[in-house]
């Protein structure tokens, strides 16, 4: 339509190829320019830009991370992280320092002038960021944010919380202000339990007014399931604390071990502390005596000489031995028995804890074999339990033994052990001669719940099954007619050994006449031991004999926990006053009556009685429990923290919504709930 | 041709290499953001992986189809109409970050401006082949092309997406320049375009801020130059060897759009000069094989189409890298193959598929793209046209 023919008349030479190459050349030049620019930026300006990068990246503040939870073997929470608020300021956003400081300090109940000084200093240093209160209560934080102050910001941070207070404090340990483990499992597995800390960056925005903050959230750490049973731990702690108080002792330790698996069911020290406030306790209270306290074991150690002699076939339990009326000379050193004994069987010598008998067996076994058995039982080396600062004890190498050493060591002197080492040795006997390394961790789980670690405890045979069975019988004799009659149990056979060791006086380097370590270590039931319990009482006042001071604690713990563990009674129940009129019962009847009594007892008792909890004493859970179910408590009107603690104690899982106080709950109060069940709670403010 | 033809190996390998490398870098750049926003560090990389799979599939299909099916009036104008309708449709959707660039379907979104690049290239190649011998005509050739380009570009500018509009202009200039347009025609077109850009700079304040930021980024590092400064810091702190894969710090907070428009800064930071130059060289390889394909294309349509496609992709890449390196003012434009986003990756890979199909003819020994051959093609087309003209074919004057 337009005048195309005229245009067409003028045919231009085709330049397409040249032009295409021109386009390509142009892009190649562009690439070269980019290459030059890259070299300039990444080589010439590298140092300068790196410095800029560091200076701005270091403006980031690390925020607390959420540690993984610690739970007992049934999954009941022993330690977890709760969310708290931390308050920080951006100093140069604050105009009226004095007024702001005053308002904040009113809300926190701190000194306003000091805070004002802090903020002014930070302002002068041109700092971007200043923490002014960390991990405070949500209520306090709310009071501050209600003031709507420019430049004052709140940040959520996790805080470690031990819902059961002092329960298992020495096992769990505690964390420092920086949220890192300082003792116990918290320290030993700090790396695994710690999550990745979050980071908080801020920048001024382009208008230079408001701050922009950006948070990289923290990653929660792995959680640890312990071998500890909260209930057994509680029983052990109560019994031990009572015994230490009763005997006015300096301190005490009790360990409950499952000899079949090496799992530590309870590990208690008295006095204890509240890991929520570790600073409030004396440093020595926080020491885990069960594996850091080295003492001369005394008679409990005789098990080594006896097992060596029997294992090597040197003696049999029925053989007689002359206890030489309580006196023996070893390498010109005269050693006495507490009672003069004449001819005794080997079993009787152990039951009556004759030093002379043990020494004579030691001499028969000889230094070298004795040393081997000591090592096989695990003395002189760490048990490998998953706790920090475990002691190896004191075991002199064979070439440094004196001629008289064999005598001393056979009866438990000249050697230092930890309570856990002795417990492990007795667990070896209870387990038919195989020693399984004691351990505290059942499983470690990643934050998403998958298993990342399961223990594979070292195990080896120390003595033959026959020797172990012979020793079990002999040790039962100790409770039946030897030094530990107070360790006899109601309904269960028990075996064990007492120990009463004089402490070495640090001034005279001789044995003290007044300071003793009283101990008892035993297991029950004898034929198929379910638990090994060691009780060590340090410096009891008054009676210092292991059979008087420690054996009753063993009994108290064992009698409470064996029924809880569903261990069938294997002997008749001793008549108690109200039962005197009854005829002798058949074992079946005994079992039935026990079960009835147990049901009745469980129906009556609270799920987990109150635990000493420092200043937050006195929160009792008013819940009746039946055998398998718990009754849902009325949580309405209670705070988050309060509810969390209650539910942790009952083993209930919380699904919470909102904040403030509970106004609605499902299931309803009084409904039957079971361990591990979810309860749904709506929180609100009214 | 009895011989079996194969697509260009290097073109294929550089494309797949860049796409897979992009996938890896998207993971590195987005993992932390994804963890924070979506609870899994694989959120973005999983989506990108899916898009890479779809994109490669589309590429394979396009590679199998003889490109000459595109040389069809119905196909070309159909594509043009559909593209224009899609560009209009975006205004019916709510804006994301202040821009209406996407058509949101239930599971994914389409970015019509990316498709517009492909459509425009096909149209220009087709139209200019039709006008072979008349490239110098302002009315018959230049203005119709300019009009179509301008129409699409204006719709894209209105989204607003100045970066993609600019790429449309680049494709137009490259293709029509190569086809043989007169330079003063191009100058004529540049004038209103420059005026338009100037107008935008004056009336849209943040654009002028970006300009000043480009001139001296360090003047206001916390404000207008924030992106540029953070990008330069990332590149520079990488040094020669880089901080190591996934070790980059800038992406954590400082570098905006770390996994999309500024992913090259993450590459520079983590893989250093070696990695950054490697990416540029891969695009160089892609350019070389692409240009070779164009020069050896069996016909004018194939030549202009492959040239438009390859320069469109490489120029966009160089433009994106130049933004990251503060060589040009900041423009939001993705790095082809590498930046996160299926709506850009899939059309790009589709374009490469067409390119690969044309590249088969480049393997013919002696090449078909020699000067004589092209000249004869031009002459042939001219004769055809004259014959058509004599027959009174008026359809070709549609744009007259």
Uncertain parts of chain B: 366-371, 391-400
Classified by CATH, the class of the largest domain in chain A is Alpha Beta
What name does CATH use for the topology of the largest domain in chain A? Answer: Beta-lactamase
User: What is the mean predicted local confidence, pLDDT of chain B?
Assistant: 85
Q: In the CATH hierarchy, what is the architecture of the largest domain in chain A at level 2? A: 3-Layer(aba) Sandwich
Strand content of chain B: under 5%
Q: Strand order, main sheet of chain B: write it out.
A: 1-2
Total strands of chain B: the figure is: 2
Task: Please tell me the total number of domains of chain A.
Answer: 3
Q: Give the overall shape of chain B.
A: globular
What oligomeric state best describes the polypeptide chains here?
heterodimer
Biggest interface goes to: A-B, 53 and 69 residues
Helix fraction of chain B by DSSP (H/I, runs of at least 4): 55-70%
Average pLDDT confidence of chain A is 83
Question: Which structural class matches the secondary elements of chain A?
Answer: alpha+beta
The biggest sheet of chain A amounts to: 7 strands, mixed
Count all strands of chain A and give the number. Answer: 26
Distance between the termini of chain A: 84 Å
Ends distance of chain B: 38 Å
Shape of chain A: elongated
Number of helices of chain B: 13
